[in-house]
Design goal:
Elements: E1 2-9, E2 12-19, H1 23-44, H2 52-71, H3 75-105
Antiparallel strand pairs: 1-2
Helix pairs in contact: 1-3, 2-3
Length: 106
């Protein structure tokens, strides 16, 4: 099934034909993210980010790295950097949740 997405770029309407991602690919991607998260915890431990500024810094670094991979036209490196962004975002959310939980328990 193909989905058509409408975009408006510089005042011009575009119709983009987007292929739907197969469930098997979504499952593989979930597994890749889970394994990458487990490896990151093994390497770095389970400590939370200390502030939202630290989260931002980690995300900014990963975004810079994905941009470099895009400029290098290296799809595998782009994929790896996007996984890193997802892990940082996940860990940032978990860190904020941890802080909220501690504040509620006080």
């Amino acid at each position: 099934m193909t989905i058509y997405s409408h975009s408006n770029i510089m005042g011009k309407s575009l119709i983009v034909d987007r292929e739907q991602i197969k469930e098997s690919i979504l499952e593989k991607t979930r597994g890749d993210l889970q394994r990458s998260l487990e490896k990151a915890i093994e390497r770095k431990g389970g400590g939370s980010f200390s502030s939202v500024h630290e989260i931002y810094g980690a995300l900014a670094e990963e975004v810079h790295e994905v941009l470099e991979a895009i400029h290098d036209k290296d799809p595998q490196a782009v994929r790896e950097e996007l996984i890193d962004i997802a892990i940082v975002a996940f860990w940032g959310i978990a860190s904020i949740n941890q802080k909220i939980k501690q504040d509620v328990e006080k």
